[in-house]
Design goal:
single chain, alpha/beta, five-stranded parallel beta sheet, disordered C terminus, binds flavin-adenine dinucleotide
Length: 409
C-alpha cells in the first residue's frame, strides 16, 4: 500500500507519524510546498517578542524525517490530484501514485480585496516565511509603528509580542468589541482596558478601507481616519485551503471546509482529510464548524491515520478551547459567545474574583461556555471545562441520532 500525505503541518505530520507507528514498513510520503520541517505557529509570538530563539520554533529537523524512514518531498507544490488514476501531480516532479491519500492542506489567511502592490510591509501571519519577513522589517533598534487589522487571537498575539519589543502598536477592529468570537462584552472590555494600560492602542468600530504605499510612506485608511505606519499585519481570520480538494471533485461543506465523516473520510473512499482544511461537527450546536486549532488538527490527524489503515477510530466533533497570555494575565475561552445563541435566551453568570473575571454561559440549564480574564486561573477551571464537554457529549447523542442514516455524519 502506498500512502501520500499532502501538507506538512501538524495534521499532515501527525497522520504520517500515526501510520508509521502502526505499520512501520509501509510506503508513505509527505509533500509540502513549504521547505521547512514541522514547526509550530502557536509560538510565533514568543519568537517575535524575543523570548524564544528561531530554532525553537521547529518541532522536527530535516534529519528526523530521514531517520524515521519518511519520504519527505518538501518545497514542492501539489498542483492537482487525479482521483481516477490515483495520482498526485507535483509542480516540479513526476506524479506520485497512491493507494490512499491524506489531505492536510491547512488554512490560509483571509486577505481583503485591496491593492497592496505586493509591498512586503503589508503582511499576514501564517507561516515561518511571514515571521521572517516581519522580523526583517522590524529589525534594528528603531521603534516602528505597527498596525494590526483584526483583534482575534492571532492579532492580539502579535500586538503583545511587538509591544513587548517596544514598538508602537495599534489594533484596528471592525466591531465595537475585541476578540469578538471568543469573548462577551464584559471580559472583552476588561481585556481592552488592560491592553491599553500596557500601551497597545485599540481602535474599535472602524473599518479598514485601503492601504496606500506611496512616496509619503505606508498608511492605512479606515472609514474615519488615516494611520501612518511602517508595517501592516492583516489578521482578519483564516479559511480552509481547499482548492486541490475542490478541483479533484471532493465534496465541500457549508462552511467551506472539506466535508468528512467521523472517520475523517472525504466523499472519495481513498481520500481522508484532517486539520484546518476540513469542517466537522460542533458538539454543542450540532452544526458544521471550522475548528482551526492545533489540538483538534492533531486529534483529527490521528484518526485519519488510523482510519486510512482500516483501524476503527472516530472523531466526535470539535470543542473550542483557547488560552492566551496577555502581559502576565490570561484569557481563556471555551465554548461559544452568548451572541451565538440568539433566540435561545442564554443566561450569563459573572463572578469578579480576587484574581480575575469569570463568565459562565448557560443555555437551557446547561453550561455551554466559559470565559476568563485574570491573573490566576480559578481552581475549578478544569472542572468547569469538563462539565462543558459533558454537556457537549449529551448534545452529540441527540445529533448522532439525527445523522445516523446519512453518509456524512
Ligand atoms: C500565528 C498563529 C498562531 C496560532 N496559535 C494557536 C494557538 O495558540 N493554539 C491553537 O490551538 N492554534 C493556534 N493556531 C492554529 C494552528 O496553528 C492551526 O490550527 C494548525 O497549525 C493547523 O495545522 P494543519 O496541519 O491543519 O495546517 P497548516 O499548518 O496550515 O499546514 C498545511 C500545510 O500544507 C501545505 N500545503 C497546502 N496546500 C498545498 C499544496 N497544494 N501543495 C503542497 N503543500 C500544500 C501548506 O503550505 C502547509 O505547510 C495558530 C495559528 C497561527 C497562524
Amino acid at each position: 500500500v502506498r500512502i501520500v500525505v499532502v501538507g506538512n503541518g501538524i495534521a499532515g505530520y501527525t497522520a504520517l507519524e500515526t501510520i508509521k507507528s502502526l505499520k512501520p514498513s509501509i510506503d508513505v510520503s509527505i509533500v509540502s510546498d513549504e521547505n521547512a520541517p514541522l514547526y509550530s505557529p502557536c509560538i510565533f509570538g514568543n519568537y517575535l517578542s524575543g523570548d524564544l530563539k528561531r530554532e525553537n520554533l521547529f518541532l522536527k529537523n530535516h534529519s528526523d524525517y530521514q531517520r524515521s524512514g519518511i519520504k519527505a518531498i518538501l518545497g514542492q507544490k501539489v498542483t492537482e490530484i487525479d482521483p481516477h488514476d490515483k495520482l498526485v501531480h507535483l509542480l516540479h516532479n513526476k506524479p506520485l501514485p497512491y493507494d490512499k491519500l491524506i489531505l492536510a492542506t491547512g488554512s490560509e489567511p483571509i486577505f481583503p480585496s485591496i491593492n497592496t502592490n505586493q509591498d512586503p510591509r503589508i503582511t499576514v501571519l501564517k507561516s515561518i516565511y511571514d515571521v521572517d519577513r516581519i522580523q526583517s522589517i522590524l529589525d534594528g533598534s528603531q521603534t516602528k509603528n505597527v498596525i494590526i487589522i483584526g483583534s482575534g487571537p492571532i492579532g492580539l498575539e502579535i500586538a503583545i509580542s511587538l509591544r513587548k519589543c517596544g514598538h508602537s502598536v495599534t489594533i484596528i477592529e471592525l466591531l465595537e468589541r475585541i476578540m469578538p468570537k471568543l469573548l462577551d462584552k464584559n471580559p472583552a472590555s476588561l481585556l481592552k482596558s488592560y491592553l491599553k494600560e500596557n500601551g497597545v492602542r485599540l481602535i474599535t468600530g472602524e473599518k479598514m478601507m485601503k492601504i496606500s504605499c506611496d512616496s509619503r510612506g505606508l498608511s492605512v485608511f479606515t472609514n474615519k481616519n488615516e494611520f501612518f505606519c511602517d508595517l501592516v499585519c492583516i489578521c482578519i481570520g483564516m479559511q480552509p485551503r481547499v482548492k486541490l480538494a475542490h478541483d479533484a471533485g471532493l465534496e465541500l461543506g457549508s462552511r467551506g471546509g472539506i466535508r468528512v465523516n467521523s472517520n475523517m473520510l472525504t466523499s472519495n473512499p481513498n481520500i481522508h482529510a484532517c486539520g484546518d482544511c476540513v469542517e466537522t461537527l460542533d458538539f454543542l450546536t450540532g452544526e458544521r464548524c471550522l475548528s482551526l486549532l492545533w489540538h483538534t488538527a492533531k486529534l483529527q490527524a490521528f484518526i485519519a491515520g488510523k482510519s486510512c489503515l482500516g483501524f476503527p477510530s472516530r472523531y466526535n466533533g470539535s470543542v473550542n478551547f483557547v488560552v492566551l497570555e496577555v502581559f502576565g494575565k490570561k484569557v481563556v475561552s471555551s465554548g461559544h459567545v452568548s451572541s451565538d445563541f440568539i433566540g435561545s435566551s442564554p443566561q450569563i453568570f459573572e463572578n469578579d474574583q480576587l484574581d480575575g473575571h469569570l463568565s459562565l454561559i448557560k443555555v437551557n440549564e446547561k453550561l455551554v461556555a466559559l470565559q476568563f480574564f485574570g491573573s490566576r486561573l480559578p481552581k475549578d477551571l478544569g472542572r468547569l471545562i469538563s462539565i462543558i464537554k459533558r454537556q457537549f457529549n449529551k448534545e452529540l447523542k441527540v445529533q448522532a441520532a439525527n445523522f445516523i442514516n446519512l453518509p456524512y455524519y
